[in-house]
Amino acid sequence: MDERKLRILRAIIDDYILTAVPVGSRTISRKYETSLSSATIRNEMSDLEELGYLDQPHVSAGRIPSAKAYRLYVDQLLASGAIRSDTEESIRHYFSSHLRQMERVIDEAAKALSSLTGYTAVVLEPGGHEPRIRNIQLVSVSSRSALVVIVTDAGLIRDHVVSVPRGVDPDTLYMISQALTEALMGCTPSEACDRIPILTARMEQNTDLLRSVGGLMTEARDKGSHGHIGIGGVSNMLSYPEYSDMEKARNFLSLVETRDRLAQIIRQRGDVAFTVRIGPETGVPEISDCSVVTATYTTSNGRQGTIGVIGPTRMQYSRVLSVLAGMGQQLSQLFDQQEDSNSTKGGGARE
Amino acid sequence: MDERKLRILRAIIDDYILTAVPVGSRTISRKYETSLSSATIRNEMSDLEELGYLDQPHVSAGRIPSAKAYRLYVDQLLASGAIRSDTEESIRHYFSSHLRQMERVIDEAAKALSSLTGYTAVVLEPGGHEPRIRNIQLVSVSSRSALVVIVTDAGLIRDHVVSVPRGVDPDTLYMISQALTEALMGCTPSEACDRIPILTARMEQNTDLLRSVGGLMTEARDKGSHGHIGIGGVSNMLSYPEYSDMEKARNFLSLVETRDRLAQIIRQRGDVAFTVRIGPETGVPEISDCSVVTATYTTSNGRQGTIGVIGPTRMQYSRVLSVLAGMGQQLSQLFDQQEDSNSTKGGGARE
DNA sequence: ATTAGCACTCAATCACTTCGAGTGCTAACA
DNA sequence: TGTTAGCACTCGAAGTGATTGAGTGCTAAT
Questions:
Q1: Pairing outcome for strands A54-55 and B64-65
Q2: A134 reaches B (C-beta below 8 A)
Q3: Span CA (B69) to C1' (C30), Å
Q4: Residue A230: inside a domain, yes or no?
Q5: Residue among B153, B160, B234 whose CB faces A101 most closely
Q6: What's the pLDDT band for A207 if we cut at 50, 70, 90?
Q7: Residue A347: strand, helix, or coil
Q8: Do B342 and A163 touch (CB under 8 A)?
Q9: Measuring CA to CA, which residue among A243, A262, A288 is closest to residue B249?
């Protein structure tokens, strides 16, 4: 694999990313390799096709890069270490002064990502390991109902109203909460599911209440671990010619609609900074002509979240990567401030 | 306006709803009014066009119903009172056994609505009046941080972690919570925002903590009133020929992406059971060739939510209306059970 | 090794025709 | 007077070549 071949391949990819039109030998010879004639380029292209880096839609059209070509391109890009998160200011611009609610940060991040890249963006809430219960509270809502709040180290399991038997006052609720917290602290929801029946059996009163909590816990366990998902720029996809085919567009849309599957696709584990999956590498037939680029961000307590961009295979990888890098940093920072504001803000403002 | 004209107009609308193809005189004479010849139908159609009920895309095509025609059609439909919620069983089928988390109910409802109608569905959380605070709890998460949970009669204001000064144990947190609840019970968030600084000033300790709560309250106030929004079946729209135009499809999609605007469009106030807005009546240029049908559901404590369906103007109004009716009932029921489960379930399961 | 030249391919475009669904009008009819 | 049959007319959709031009592969010359 010649160095010149590489240059030509790179030129073809760049041009195709820009125009989405099969690129011919003449284009390359005029716009990129002015010292070579189109005939020479043709020969090289022929070789590149044989090597599997180029495809030809039909005999009298130009060439388009194959997934293998993009792979090479991206690997080179990653190896060169040329990904600077130079977009830091423009990213910061998207976060209004002081967002502190997790969900809003995530939504904003997705919006920013999609708007900066022009593709569809997905942001997942941090949550690496299985959540562990930290606190259970029954919060009185009215005389006859209460809200069960289960706090885990991954955040909060959502609201659920349960009915309260007659004669149980807020203080009793608090005591029950304390007992529950003590018994289940550190458990995962599924462990808690197993224990609650035992607890229920041991208690002679308030069994109804406990059963309700058990029900909620089961729901929490089955719900699937992903927290909030931020999605942005879905409509962007329709502006690319590869999605002028309605059938493809519908497939993509319905994939995005089933957030569970989307989360599964985006979620990235392990300690790599970036993942780039091109076309078939995604393993998802619906988006076999898309690429998925993901990156992670980390909070101070080690929980890991994923951000990702989905676009056509002829994606502006270098831009996407640098935006992802920048966004990852921003998010890590934001959540750091938020989660251990005791050490920084608390310390400073103390007294 | 002849009775026969009405029959013919109705036949045209029905056929066009089914096929999305301009319908000609011959079709009507063969499929609907077999006793009349196509020539007669032609005369009648000509009259109907002059009256503004029919449009003609070009001279040698059939006729298509105008917005005015749909209006007449729908008004008749509504007046006839023929909307039976006969789909009750099929709707119930969509709600898995015991969903009790508000957000999931709403999401499921949207999914069910879209799947039953084949259009795009939107479900808004109930929330008529401004929410009133019922309870404030500081839930310990770790030794140095706590979660602030603000419960209102409209549900829960989301999680927000605050730092806890050294030496404040869970019991102290509970006491502070009690004090806060007592002081702010029954307030709206904006009232609470005004009061918190006063409370803070009166306290000699834990001022940091209160300030954090104040910040969260401010965010809650500014957040905008709409709660969770359930959206389903967005991809359905792409399967209708009217959206084969990419530009239109993109417009629609980006409208759906900005949930705030969508909520604004769907939200329905007042005591009418149904609202049908056809084409330009929606007042939203992006969907000037769509219709929006909404209905309300009510919870036992009088809070009102909206469910809606967005589809092409040639929507299957009668089906949509009956599905909406059924879904409205189901939701009203579901939230009734949930909100005052004390009177029904609590009473039953007592002992 | 590179390049100029040439024959060849094939999608895209355009002009042209044909086809048929549909209309409007008129005249005949019950 | 309302209904119908018949006919001329319109116009989009679909089909048919012919033309164009971007692009290739191959060969022979540099």
A1: unpaired
A2: yes
A3: 34
A4: yes
A5: B160
A6: confident
A7: helix
A8: yes
A9: A243
Of the two residues B239 and B134, the one the predictor is more confident about is B239
Asked whether the whole model's pTM tops 0.85, one would answer no
**pLDDT tens string A73-114:** 999 999 887 677 766 677 777 775 444 567 778 899 999 999
Give the DSSP letter of residue B185.
T
A237 plus A307 within the same structural domain: yes
Nearest to B147 among A100, A156, A162 (CB): A156
- The reported pLDDT for the residue numbered A341 is 40
Q: B99: domain CATH number?
A: 3.30.450.40
Is residue B57 classed as helix, strand or coil in its secondary structure? coil
Min distance A141 CA to chain B CA atoms (Å)? 6
Pick from A334, A345, A339, A325: nearest CA to A105: A334
Q: Identify whether A248 is part of a domain.
A: yes
Q: Per the structure, how many domains does chain A have?
A: 3
CB A56 within 8 A of CB A296: no
In eight-state DSSP terms, residue A130 is P
**Chain B residues with CB inside 8 Å of A160's CB?**
100-101
Of A155, A165, A249, which has the smallest distance from its Cβ to B346's Cβ?
A165
Q: What backbone phi and psi angles, to 5 degrees, belong to A310?
A: -115, 130
Average pLDDT estimate for A150-168? 71
Whether residue B96 lies within 8 A of chain A, CB to CB, comes out as no
In this structure, are residues A22 and A64 in contact, taking their beta carbons and an 8 Å threshold? Answer: yes
